[in-house]
Specification:
By secondary structure, the protein is an alpha+beta fold. It has 2 domains: about 170 residues, no CATH class; about 230 residues, no CATH class. The protein is built from 9 helices and 8 strands. The strands form 2 sheets. A 5-stranded antiparallel β-sheet has the order 1-2-3-4-8. Strands 6-5-7 form a 3-stranded antiparallel β-sheet, with no helix packed on it.
Length: about 400
């Protein structure tokens, strides 16, 4: 009687200690590794809220499922792991081939890198392992503790360097790539972090919208100012083309001010003038088109504007010496919003013409410009700058 009882206790103890099948245990450990890598990548994508949310959810699900799968052997739980990690694999394939259009920050495809490849491989292994368990159940040979420990050590040894790599992940650079790519371009200038003087240590390069953005090489520009300026260009390059067809813009409330004869035609949307949003290519106050010989219009720039009650004393520091805001205080408009002349010597418009608003504005060019990506127009269209400033012409980054 005593012998039978002892054997029963041993069997029960072994059952508790060796409850996870090899397939499910492998899937669980790999899911935890993939989740840890995705968690490490969250901070790098901080400029894009949707990307942050996506990585956070994915990391949380992979980590939680992996830990739960080590404690509970359940076919339905295994299928949840199959679904979650399959989504991770499919998302990786989309991000590397065509981009993910519905997630801000992943619209453009990216090259394969060690961190994301490792996370994808772990997720794929998790899919296979969980699927095997869901089909075979507990009939497979049960996992011993040494085997489980070995798997955990191997996955950890690979996960740690992948997490480090994820923390310095490089994004696509073509066409500005993304705001994230631009946000880290200042590292290439060799300017030490925290150096408020931002002394140039490398020669500046021409601004080309089709190449990685690098506004380095301008003395007096801090790394933070350079990063902000590059970020603004990058998000504008990425989002402004939604207004490439001026008819789409008109349908959204934009209207031409009738200045196409100057070579640049401005479309404005008064609904965006005082909406509490600035420097937003999804809600730009003004769009600039170049009339083409065939009658079409080419989108070349955004002209972001502050609220009508703000002045040049209120402008934000976007890029220090790289950027310059201006106003228009000498234009006269018809009652229908068409520019029709200039003010007289007293600064007034002849009736029935009226003066337009004088809120500060700044161009962000998505095409090359001889005076750089933030250049104002020439002549009357250049507007007026703050007293004491010199007209900006950033020839260091000017395109030809």
């Amino acid at each position: 009687m005593a012998t039978v009882t002892a054997d029963a206790l041993v069997t029960a103890r072994e059952r508790r200690a060796l409850v996870v099948s090899p397939a499910l245990a492998t899937a669980a450990v790999c899911s935890i590794g993939a989740g840890a890598i995705h968690a490490a990548a969250i901070g790098v994508h901080s400029e894009h809220r949707q990307a942050v949310i996506t990585f956070t959810i994915l990391a949380a699900v992979q980590l939680a499922w992996g830990m739960l799968a080590l404690l509970v052997s359940n076919r339905w739980l295994a299928l949840v792991g199959v679904a979650a990690n399959t989504a991770a694999v499919v998302g990786w394939v989309m991000a590397k081939t065509s981009g993910i259009s519905f997630i801000d920050g992943f619209e453009d495809s990216e090259s394969v890198q060690f961190a994301d490849l490792t996370a994808m491989v772990f997720a794929a292994i998790a899919v296979v392992g969980a699927l095997v368990f869901a089909v075979t159940g507990l009939r497979a040979t049960r996992f011993g503790k040494p085997t489980l420990a070995f798997s955990a050590v191997v996955v950890t040894a690979i996960t740690i360097p992948a997490m480090v790599s994820a923390g310095s992940h490089a994004h696509a650079g073509g066409h500005g790539g993304s705001a994230e790519a631009a946000g880290h371009e200042h590292e290439a200038t060799g300017t030490p972090e925290g150096d408020d003087h931002g002394h140039a240590v490398v020669a500046p390069v021409e601004y080309d919208p089709n190449k990685p953005i690098d506004l380095g090489g301008v003395e007096g520009v801090s790394p933070e100012q350079q990063a902000r300026a590059e970020n603004l260009i990058a998000i504008t390059l990425l989002r402004l083309p939604q207004w490439a067809d001026y008819k789409t813009a008109e349908a959204a409330g934009f209207a031409s001010i009738g200045d196409g004869v100057t070579g640049h035609e401005h479309f404005i949307n008064v609904d965006y003038f005082d909406d509490g949003q600035i420097l937003n290519p999804d809600r730009p106050e003004s769009l600039v088109y170049e009339p083409q010989p065939d009658g079409s219009k080419k989108l070349v720039s955004a002209m972001y504007m502050l609220a009508p009650d703000q002045t040049l004393d209120d402008v934000p520091d976007v890029g220090g010496e790289l950027t310059q805001w201006h106003i228009h205080n000498n234009l006269c408009f018809t009652t229908t919003g068409q520019v029709a002349g200039l003010t007289d010597a007293a600064g007034a418009c002849s009736a029935p013409l009226v003066k337009g608003p004088e809120q500060p504005m700044i161009h962000v060019w998505i095409t090359k410009h001889p005076c750089g990506p933030f250049a104002s127009l020439e002549g009357v269209g250049a507007g007026q700058i703050k007293e004491g400033e010199t007209r900006l012409c950033d020839t260091a980054h000017g395109g030809h």
